[in-house]
TrEMBL record:
Database matches in Pfam families: Acetyltransf_3
Domain N-acetyltransferase: 15-176
Originating organism: Rhodococcoides corynebacterioides
Protein name: GNAT family N-acetyltransferase
Gene3D superfamilies recorded: 3.40.630.30
Cross-referenced InterPro entries: Acyl_CoA_acyltransferase (IPR016181), GNAT_dom (IPR000182)
Lineage: Bacteria, Bacillati, Actinomycetota, Actinomycetes, Mycobacteriales
Length: 207
């Protein structure tokens, strides 16, 4: 993948995305401050062993580039990834995203998306996808808020940890959509406070 999208650190005003490594076990444990943020995932992080297994799985996927998310002062606050990277068709997905409750509702998530989307489209991507559980209403609304479009439901798309099958809601943004979406997302970053308002902390994985 290195000839198309490099796996390198992305820096913003509120968030830094650095390539995830096996040295980030303690960072992930520190960021995982509420089990509810893993409600829609199959790999909750409670212990160093959980974090090590998460990192091992992320690094073993040749089509994935995982990142540790930090605030500007260096505090670890979660992860996000490019995945399903497809150089032949210039497409990829953004996901495996979760954030500490301390930064949910702040500028961290929208700025992280600006960094990831700008990097993808500036490197020649023509399509970026998001996938979420059809029942995760908050995640679906958040993805639409990024400027992506809903494209349909993928039945029996992923198996959950309990063995049941998930129907996935598919969203996408193209390079044609990005210029307008970029303006709106940067405005959202400017309008967000660095600290969430009381009672305004969603406890679901971010898109």
């Amino acid at each position: 993948m290195s000839d198309w999208i490099e796996h390198e650190t992305l820096r913003g005003t509120h968030v830094v995305l650095e390539p995830l490594t096996d040295g980030h076990v303690d960072d992930l444990v520190a960021a995982a401050d509420d089990e509810r943020i893993f409600r829609w995932t199959s790999a909750p992080i409670r212990t160093p062993d959980d974090a090590a297994a998460y990192i091992e799985a992320a690094l073993a996927d040749p089509t994935r580039q995982p990142f540790l998310q930090r605030t500007a002062d260096g505090t670890p606050v979660g992860t996000t990834s490019y995945y399903l990277i497809d150089p032949a068709h210039r497409s990829l997905a953004i996901g495996y995203t979760w954030l500490s409750t301390t930064v949910q509702g702040t500028a961290v998530n929208p700025e992280a998306k600006v960094l990831l989307l700008d990097r993808a489209f500036s490197r020649g991507a023509v399509r970026v996808e998001w996938h979420t559980d059809e029942h995760n209403a908050q995640s679906r609304a958040a993805i639409l808020g990024l400027g992506a479009q809903f494209e349909g439901l993928l039945r029996k798309h992923r198996q959950r940890s309990d063995g049941s099958w998930r129907t996935t809601a598919l969203f996408a943004m193209t390079d044609d959509d990005w210029p307008d979406a970029c303006i709106r997302l940067n405005e959202k970053v400017r309008n967000r406070f660095d600290r969430p308002r009381n009672g305004d902390r969603p406890t679901v994985p971010m898109p």
